[in-house]
């Protein structure tokens, strides 16, 4: 069997953990399998590097950020190879350049375009354990890129897809995918199975247990994922295509504090206004999420929308620069908001989920700022200070079934 095993930052945070991971990989290797390991940077390394960069230049270029941040993963893979070699197991560490993991050019948020297999297959042929840096790619200028926070999961899935791996295991610091973040919701329950679509919604809506693009890619290439703990042997959660299991009304609840609401006030109430505003944002790579437009009055209207916190400054700058053309009278924003979402494939055929969610929030005296829905999701925007309480209330309100 060919097994891809990915370990996150906490799983390789110190020497003991590195040896713990090495031993888990060696066990599979000694059982006769081909083993490809993907690692994240140790512990909080990435956060620390970001803070260090900020202290030197708060406007650091994204290219240089990528040069800096990718060092974290390089440290992990080298140390892991050394650990395995010290246990007399042949291992080789490889970075994105050595594997050749081709990505798009966009620093800080690149996507894989193509991943070469030649070098890895060659090393596997000589019975080595392969240890690959997560989170990084190489663009057409031969510059190093990163895939966005949490991107090592995507490296693992990309490798599993191109190598036609028999298994892709994502090891982390919780026992699997839960009905909500187990660190916030005390009644959260581990799921045995979750579909790609549900997992994709949860991951995109703030459940950082898997990088959303890793789920997208897993679905596209039909890579079955197992999310499990690196610290114990419990079974974890399988992420796969929908089976004939009964669709749960609500599979999980996710929260995202990394969001801000922007309002453009007094824009012309005419065809083309919304197009021009959102086209301007899109052309500058700013993703817009929930949108709310007021009823027009006296020839003008207001439009509110949410963007990721990281995009706030550039969005405001852009709107200010285009204020006249976009007919905006005033721009306001609120950073103290968070998104709360419930996800479940069963919602499609079950009216009343939204009403129940709103009732639960009402009972907890939590005000709703904005609402958006899809077939299998309902998202509301609430005050950031209320988010943990809201998450617990909504989770328990649905008492996600056993
Ligand atoms: P890693 O470093 O292993 O990639 P992450 O910190 O990226 O780990 O992701 C794991 C964390 O995701 C957990 O510690 C947990 O707090 C958080 N999390 C958020 N939502 C969920 C969920 N629904 N199920 C499990 N964990 C979740
Ligand atoms: N080290 C990177 C991060 O912290 C990638 C990852 O952990 O997946 O975001
Ligand atoms: Mg992660």
Could you state the CATH homologous superfamily of one domain?
A: Acetylglutamate kinase-like
Write out the distinct hetero groups bound to the structure.
adenosine-5'-diphosphate, aspartic acid, magnesium ion
CATH C-level of one domain: Alpha Beta
- Average of per-residue pLDDT values: 95
What is the distance, rounded to the nearest whole angstrom, between the alpha carbons of the first and last residues?
A: 33 Å
Q: Total number of helical segments? A: 12
Major sheet characteristics:
8 strands, mixed
In total, how many beta strands?
18
Q: Helicity level, as a percent range?
A: 25-40%
| The CATH topology of one domain | Carbamate kinase
Spans of at least 5 consecutive residues with low confidence = none
Looking at how many chains there are and whether they match, the oligomeric state comes to single chain
Shape: globular
| CATH level-two architecture of one domain | 3-Layer(aba) Sandwich
């Amino acid at each position: 069997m060919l097994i891809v095993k990915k370990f996150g930052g906490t799983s390789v945070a110190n020497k003991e953990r590195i040896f713990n991971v090495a031993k888990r990989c060696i066990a599979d290797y000694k059982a006769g399998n081909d083993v490809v390991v993907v690692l994240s940077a140790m512990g909080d390394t990435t956060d620390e590097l970001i803070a260090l960069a900020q202290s030197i230049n708060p406007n650091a270029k994204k290219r240089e950020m990528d040069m800096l941040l990718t060092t974290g993963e390089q440290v992990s893979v080298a140390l892991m190879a050394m650990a395995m070699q010290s246990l007399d197991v042949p291992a080789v560490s490889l970075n994105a350049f050595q594997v050749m993991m081709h990505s798009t050019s966009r620093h800080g948020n690149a996507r894989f375009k193509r991943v070469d297999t030649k070098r890895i297959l060659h090393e596997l042929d000589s019975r080595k354990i392969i240890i690959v840096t997560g989170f990084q790619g190489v663009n057409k200028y031969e510059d190093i890129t990163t895939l966005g926070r949490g991107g090592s999961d995507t490296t693992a899935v990309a490798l599993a897809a191109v190598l036609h791996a028999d298994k892709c295991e994502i090891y982390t610091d919780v026992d699997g995918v839960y009905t909500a973040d187990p660190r916030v919701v005390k009644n959260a329950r581990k799921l045995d199975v979750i579909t790609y679509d549900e997992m994709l919604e949860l991951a995109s809506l703030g459940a950082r247990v898997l990088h959303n693009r890793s789920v997208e890619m897993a679905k596209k290439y039909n890579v079955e994922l197992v999310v499990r703990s690196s610290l114990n042997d419990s079974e974890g959660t399988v992420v796969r295509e929908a089976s004939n299991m009964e669709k749960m009304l609500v599979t999980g609840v996710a929260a995202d504090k990394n969001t801000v609401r922007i309002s453009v006030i007094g824009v012309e109430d005419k065809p083309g206004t919304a197009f021009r505003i959102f086209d301007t944002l899109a052309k500058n790579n700013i993703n817009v999420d929930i949108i709310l437009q007021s009823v027009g009055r006296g020839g003008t209207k207001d439009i509110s929308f949410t963007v990721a916190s990281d995009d706030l400054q550039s969005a405001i700058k852009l709107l200010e620069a285009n204020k006249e053309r976009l007919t905006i009278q005033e721009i306001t924003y609120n950073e103290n908001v968070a998104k709360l979402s419930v996800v479940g494939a069963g919602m499609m055929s079950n009216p009343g989920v939204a009403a129940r969610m709103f009732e639960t929030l009402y009972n907890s005296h939590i005000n709703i700022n904005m609402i958006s829905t899809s077939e299998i999701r309902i998202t509301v925007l609430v005050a950031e200070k209320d988010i943990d309480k809201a998450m617990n209330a909504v989770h328990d309100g649905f008492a996600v079934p056993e």
